[in-house]
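name: query_chain
kind: protein
chains: 1
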Amino acid sequence: MVLNIFLIILTIILGLCVGSFLNVVIYRLPKNMSIAKPKSHCINCDYQLEWYDNIPVLSYIILGGKCRKCKTKISPRYIVVELLNAILWFVALMLNTNLIFASIQSNYIMLIVYFVVISTLICVAFCDFENMEIPDEFQIILLIAGIISMMFGDVNSKVFGFILGGGFFALFAGLYYLIKRREGLGFGDIKLMAVLGLILGFENTLITIILSALSGAMVLSVLAIINRKKNKEERSKEYPFAVFIVPSAILAMFVGDIIVNWYLSLFMIV
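structure:
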């Protein structure tokens, strides 16, 4: 019991600390800046942050979301990423060890893989949202995670997941271009779904595709209605799709098997 509590606390603390690092990556990597140098600083006045300015969540709250020196507002994205990473790490810990279900055999190698995948996907979502770009470094990390995960799962399912994820999105992108004569889905999204298929397997990849398509269609339809009376340039504005893929993939990774079993149960004859 004491060991379990220690593991939970350690996971949350490390999740917050890694979340703080993810903010650096999200800001610097798309700008081709070093993630190691210079030291964290205010982008408005160049004030170099001290260690007590970098305590995850607490420093943001104590400073009131403002720079200590110039009082410029700090983006709420910083605290959101820290909390989101810690929460998702905690959920992954609880679902992938026997802390909740005694029947589940703990696999701490895969748990670490899930931690890496979650943190990488958070970076993917925020980079795509802020810059309309998914850096290839994230795709490589996810590819490596997918290859490692093949040692602990159904290889055939993961290979078919890779084909389904990349193939379906590539087909959609091709058909959209033939019909609309403009890009409807970026190559980064296609690569992302391919490597996610390798991680998730065939069934969970299918769930990810369905959930991301449904959520994307609903949100983008609302935006289309809002922008209907605006100029042509605003109506044809492109939107990041990774923000729909990422939460769908994480949900499938967490409870995909439950969703599949529930769906199949609807067709069982009692």
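note: The chain is about 65% helix and 0% strand.
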